[in-house]
Amino acid sequence: MYSLHIASGVKDDCRKLINQFEECDTVRFQDFSTVWQSMKFSAIFTGRQSYAEMLEFCEEVLQIAKVFMLPPYRFKTQIGGLYLLYGLYYKLPCRKIKIRVTLSEWKEILELHNNIREGNHTDANYILSKMIYNDVFYHCAFHREYGLEKFLRVKEVQTNNQYSLLPTLRDMSEPDQILSKIETFSKIYHQAKSEISKGSEPTRALNMYDAKTAEKLIKKIKDVEYTRQHPISDTIDEEKMVCSRKSLKNTLEKGSQVKSFPDKSRAKIGHGFDTDSSDEEELEINRLDNYNPNLPERFEESSDSE
Questions:
Q1: Where are the alpha helices (DSSP H) in the chain?
Q2: Is the pLDDT of residue 252 over 60?
């Protein structure tokens, strides 16, 4: 089941806008405004079908734009990210939305503000000071809000961890790199030990090293990379939901087809406890033709008399 991210393509548009801004000679807001208008970036909030969708979209857009004003981006990119965040925030169609920042992000913003003041960049200094004065930042523990409703929604969110070793490990697992060479040497070493042992596998005394260690490590790195690029969908499969509905429907239909038997005790106790008339048949007792009233009540009496 394919699910499209609500802010799909926004990050690419933001990166394109900032790249064009970086081609300008200065870091003045006028240059950024020219690029903004040429791309018609104000129309980014159009086309939403409901208020809930618009609200979620605005929150996602602010989180995407905020990344560009934080490290490890260079100074001019951070200025472009600041202008971008400023333009998006004051164009929001929804009220009472703030920019979520964690403690570490807030420290980086203050450090950026110091660099702006030291460089005497008046436009950026005014804009960031205005945003701080207008209390547009919401200080929180996490940059995203967590709740149970997030469980059934798919998002193409990738953490921006500047200390991640995955890119380095991915490069090491490429052909002709160190892990691939270790894998090749391991196979040669394993084959040499097998020849010494005169068998398909080396003896236990020589088998002190697993020849498939590098191979397993490369496979694990590729699996992690694939999982990062293809996040597991938490949404319920639509086909399974249809099957569940059909199964439930069949169960209810079978339950409704269960034969109902008349209450036989009603004929014996009568309808004294009912408030309305009953349509159930009364139990009819027919008189026996050859009935002997002198028969004993118990079998013991009949056997004693004989």
A1: 10-22, 29-38, 51-67, 75-89, 103-118, 122-133, 166-172, 178-197, 213-229, 238-256, 264-269, 299-305
A2: no
